[in-house]
Amino acid sequence: MKQKILILGAGFAGMWAALSAARLTSMHQRSDIDIVVLAPQPELRVRPRFYEQKVETLVSPLLPLFNVTGVKFVQGEAQRIDAEAKCVWYRNAQNESTVEHYDRLVLATGSHLRRDLVKGAAEHAFDLDQLETALRLEQHINQLGQQPDGPARDTVVVCGGGFTGIEVATELPHRLRQILGEGSAPRVIVVERGDVIGGRWSEELRDVIRQACDELGVEWRLGAEIAEVNEQGILLAEGELIESNTVIWTVGVQANGLTEQLAAQRDAQGRLHVNEFLQVPGYDDIFATGDVARAATDDKGNVALMTCQHAIMLGRFVGHNAACSLLNLEPLTYRQVNYVTCLDLGNWGAVYSEGWEQEVKLTRGEAKKLKLSITSELIYPPKADRQIAFETADPLAAFV
Ligand SMILES: Cc1cc2nc3c(=O)[nH]c(=O)nc-3n(C[C@H](O)[C@H](O)[C@H](O)COP(=O)(O)OP(=O)(O)OC[C@H]3O[C@@H](n4cnc5c(N)ncnc54)[C@H](O)[C@@H]3O)c2cc1C
Known about the structure:
With 400 residues, the protein is of the alpha/beta class. It has helices at residues 12-27, 63-69, 121-124, 131-142, 151-154, 163-180, 203-216, 308-327, 364-378, 386-393; strands at residues 3-8, 33-39, 43-45, 59-61, 72-82, 87-92, 97-101, 104-107, 111-113, 155-159, 187-191, 218-221, 226-230, 233-236, 241-243, 246-249, 253-255, 272-273, 279-280, 283-288, 293-294, 340-344, 350-354, 359-363. The radius of gyration is 22 Å and the shape is globular.
């Protein structure tokens, strides 16, 4: 009877897990092992680009790639993991409850933004977390020109000064001027609880971000606590109201809720602690990867971040190791020593740093060129060609 590796999620981690598992089983000529991806859509949604325009184009179809590599796709949304019975209950495309059994399970269902952290954020704020919500924000921005002018129309408030907040904030001044007219004076205000810009990042990186924001006219409200988002804008804890029709929420990323169904340790973001082979302790046949996994990247105490940089490599390792465990091969220890940061800074350019110390290597146009090659090539799925796909899915092949 055939065995099955079931992968939940077709994002960066899930897609690479499938290709990597298919690579190893094919190398060992094991056509008795099925690799099955279960996800709502057979497409990779390129979340790191959701602050850009034309959001609807930021998807890449996966069926041609899965077809040439022998990966099976099942459309649906997983609802319940029954680890004892080794099966996953899911809603299929017809919204019926049905079940898929597994021999090895890979949880790769990603993350979502928490919008319940501040009163009114869920009802009144926009976000760029998922394709649908990013589309809604883009449509809203595109029709701002039709709204009556005034401070609420002309002000965008970005809640949170993390990487996502900065990328969208620095992208907007130019876009807003195009929409509201060259003579307009749009304001983009980043509201941040910390007392400095990017408090956890290197001084060098912070300086570049500060300079770019100054030149672009992006304002920062530091040490500011948001008490409420409402129909008029945001209310700060100190009582000030910043009027805005466009409040963008970027704070509080949380691992997908399926992680809660396993009796295993999770971190503050809900990620499952995994061992060096990306298995969930206590469940020999369950692995976690990408944004749902808290994995050590080296022996120095660094841990994978919720980034596609890490999700891609975590995916390649997890697929390999899930296949190893069915093939009785020695698994590989997940290691990803190199870490880089490449942050888009709108019309100013970008900034690129290397290492966990974030040593700045490139800025402005040079960094922007690199950013574009990362976001429009490097993180995209490989060509639908079996040999190329398997070569790139090798967890030991060079990445960054
Ligand atoms: C606006 C924004 C900007 C970002 N910028 C960067 C950046 O510059 N650099 C960077 O490295 N990272 C960036 N990231 C983070 C990066 O996108 C994530 O870390 C990455 O997508 C994680 O990959 P993943 O495969 O774990 O999850 P995802 O890519 O989110 O994929 C999850 C998959 O699981 C599926 N799924 C969800 N629930 C279920 C279910 N119940 N059943 C079955 N399938 C399910 C989804 O449909 C999807 O296919 C950014 C993210 C956002 C939102």
